[in-house]
Structure formats: C-alpha cells, structure tokens
Amino acid sequence: MNIQAELSLYPLRKKHIGEVIVRFTEELRTGGLKPETGAMSTVVQGECRKVFATVQQAFEACGREAGIVLVLKAGNACSDFVPHIEKRSNRRRRHSL
Questions:
Q1: Strand pairing partners for 33?
Q2: CA 79 to chain centre
Q3: pLDDT > 70? residue 93
Q4: What pLDDT, in 10s, does the model give residues 13-27?
Q5: Burial label, 57 (beta-carbon count in 10 A; 0-12, 13-18, 19+)
C-alpha cells in the first residue's frame, strides 16, 4: 500500500536545531525517499513499510545526537499520490440540506 506522510521534527535542548533537521532529511534520502521540505514540515511518499522503516532509521540516528520529538501524520487516501483514489475535483459532489 502506498502512503503519504507529513513529518515535523522538533529537536530539544539544542542551540542549533537546523543541524538535526538537516541530518533527519539526509537520512530520509539515504533510505530512498524523496522528502519535500517546507517551513514547518516535510512530506514523503512511498510504499508503507519502506516509509515507516526509513522514518524509524532517521529517528534513531537523530535521537542518538539529541532529544527529539517527531510528529507524524500518514494516510493512504491522498488523491495526488495514491492511484486508486479518485480526485475530488473530478468527482461530482452531492449536497443535501
């Protein structure tokens, strides 16, 4: 099953948090994912087991360097990525009052 996940990493008790975030992103790339980094979060896509295994490896690598908190949201119903979901814009919507 393919999924899309949004990740937000919060390094704790570090003067320069950017170093840990860059390391986390590099670990995701090393694991074969293509992270799309934004101001507040990073999005990755892929096969469910690969995404979770890669995120676990990145979490463990960064967790050895600093105290971290990772917030992860994942779904398999992201129409732009998951092929079996019809895009809402192409679907006729019915509204009832």
A1: none
A2: 16
A3: no
A4: 888 889 999 999 999
A5: middle
Q: What is the distance between the alpha carbons of residues 68 and 60, in angstroms, rounded to a whole number?
A: 10
Q: Is the pLDDT of residue 29 over 50?
A: yes
The answer as to whether 91 is a domain residue is: no
pLDDT bin (cut points 50, 70, 90) of residue 96 is: very low
Structural domains counted in the chain: 1
The reported pTM is: 0.79
Question: Containing domain of residue 15, as a range?
Answer: 2-75
Q: CATH code at 41?
A: 3.30.70.930
Displacement of CA 97 from its chain's centroid (Å): 37
Measured distance CA(71)–CA(61) in Å, rounded: 16
